[in-house]
Amino acid sequence: MIDTELYQAKTLYPFQEKTVQSILKELADNGKEFNLLFQLPTGGGKTVIFSETARRYIETVKEKVLILTHRIELSVQTSKQLSAIGVNNKVISSEVKEIPDESEYHCFIAMVETLNNRLNDDKNFIKGVGLVIVDEAHYNSFRKIFQFYGNANILGVTATPLSSNKALPLNDNYHKLLVGESIASLIESGYLSNAESYTYDVNLHGLKIGSNGDFTVSSSDVVYGNYFMQEKLLFAYEEVAVGTKTLIFNSGIDTSIRVEETFKKRGYKIRHLDSTFSDKDRKDVLSWFKETPDAILTSVGILTTGFDEPTVQTIILNRATRSLTLYHQMIGRGSRKLPNKDMFKVIDLGNNVRRFGIWQDYLNWQDAFRFPDRFLEARLSEAEDLEFEVEFEFHRNVEDLLDTKPLYEFSIKDYYYDCIDSGRKGKDAVDASLENHFEAIRDAAEDYFHGLEIMGLLTDHIEYRLKHYTKCITKSTPNYLKYITETYNRQLRQKLRAVLDDE
To answer: With contact defined as beta carbons under 8 Å apart, do 433 and 465 qualify?
Structure first.
């Protein structure tokens, strides 16, 4: 039996109560085999909402509820929430091979892989399920379970209704999207802390996009692991976040470990955490982070979901991502409200704010659900254009070797449009750029081989310039860029040889 008296001691926020009623009405009005997707920002209380939905569904429809998660920590958290409101529930962990006392429970919580294995062995592993609730529904691993519950309702819950796989959109499996309160509304109503964003221009040259559509870990480690980027991270922290409890998100483990080393050398209280840690070590680190004032935790991936530490005051994105979902998950870790915490800080070191807008911005989630490709491509193409507006930053080694002021002052884009306006060939801009690089190297080089060494340090800047040029002429295919870069470098070497070879 459900202990309703235990539940009545707990009151939902007004918007949560309204949401539960809306969800149950949608399920009742549309009958079986109707799948509903529900969106609510991180920090809005998704677990509270779907747990209460489960309780009322069990009470009114008299059928069982199955809740799917993708991590054991989320399963345990959900089980505790259900128990607090009086719902008899059982976690199907990897140790649970059969359920002899199945009739005693109204609700089951399972990780998707574990349940899939059980159902493949016995399709009646859990009987009498009328509603399947999918937490973090944007992950595609849950799809394999749906075939076993064709006669049940499915309720997906997510902060960002965009599939983790562009080829498998959520509207393939869900008939309707119900949009909850916006981030701005939850801030205005006092349920979430507001974010103050600080952006730092970074040179992301060298990042490569992997098969999942996001920047690869290996290329991110190269970009963010170098001394120059570590210095920029430390500078940003000391300028904005000293004295605050800080969570740093990195793309790769190597980078995160270097962050820990860099901050320790400056005497800051910092620990590193990643998915290779044992459960005990992970708990030790999180306990230290919770109890230590002004602590810094540098991490990789593991804290984007299922982590709730309201005392976090600063989020640092020490990485770039093309995933809007990940962007919101990371920043959302700082949004929990406390009596003395109305604001938190976001430091962006990946041009992510340019790519997606500030965290509080309105997003048309219905458009994202119906036309996901168009929704994402619009943002990423706009972001690409914005990347071209970011001023190139030379490494300190370059600035020690030559005067970079003439290089900063020359804009191939401006020169190109001046050529077009005056009736000259646009290609003249490339010749002018070549002369600009040549003069800077010639004036700094001791001899030809020293000139080649300086030229090697300008490889990124040359490619940056030529990317701008190909963007101007709308001929930005990889093959053309490769061709024009090879030609440019060959001609630059020839010019340097002609004046430096005899020196």
So the answer is: yes
Query: In terms of domains, do 377 and 412 share one?
Result: no
Q: What is the pLDDT of residue 8?
A: 37
Strand partners, 296: 246, 270
How high is the pLDDT of residue 388?
A: 53
CA angle 86, 91, 96 (to 5 degrees): 140
- The H-assigned helical ranges of 11-149 are 14-30, 46-61, 72-84, 112-121, 143-146
> How many domains would you assign to the chain?
3
The helix or strand, by DSSP H or E, that contains position 314, with its residue range, turns out to be: strand 314-317
Say how many residues make up the chain. Answer: 503
Per-residue pLDDT reduced to its tens digit, 299-334? 997 766 657 788 999 999 999 998 888 999 999 999
- Is the distance from CB of 65 to CB of 54 less than 8 angstroms? yes
At a CB cut-off of 8 Å and minimum separation 6, what does 393 contact? 201, 202, 203
For position 495, what pLDDT does the model report?
Answer: 93
Strand 176-179, strand 35-39: pairing: parallel
> Are 151 and 201 part of one and the same domain?
no
C-beta separation of 442 from 425 below 8 A: no
Residues 271 and 337 occupy one common structural domain: yes
- Helix, strand, coil percent content, the chain, rounded in steps of 5: 50, 15, 35
CB 312 within 8 A of CB 286: no
Longest Cα separation, the chain: 94
For position 211, what pLDDT does the model report? 66
Count other C-beta atoms under 10 Å from residue 97's C-beta.
11
Amino acid residing at 381: S
Last residue of some domain: 353, 387, 421? Answer: 387
Amino acid at 77: Q
Low-confidence ranges of the chain (pLDDT < 50): 1-9, 386
Residue 277: CA atoms inside 13 Å, Cβ hemisphere, count? 19
Angstrom distance (rounded) from CA 329 to CA 333: 7
Residue 10: CB atoms within 10 A of its CB come to: 12
Residues 6+ away with beta carbon under 8 Å from 416: 426, 429, 469, 472, 473
CA distance 307 to 73: 9
Of 174, 141, 179, the closest CA to residue 156 belongs to: 174
Q: Could you list the residue range(s) of the whole structural domain that residue 425 is in?
A: 396-500
Domain end: 154, 181, 208, which one?
Answer: 181
User: CB 250: neighbour CB atoms within 10 A?
Assistant: 27
pLDDT of residue 348: 95
Contact 13, 191 (CB under 8 A): yes
Angle at 308 between CA 302 and CA 310, to 5 degrees: 130
What contacts 55, CB < 8 A, 6 or more positions away?
Answer: 2, 7, 82, 85, 86, 87
What whole-number distance in Å separates Cα of residue 158 and Cα of residue 173?
14
Specify whether 31 is located in the same domain as 167. yes
> Which H or E run contains 65?
strand 64-69
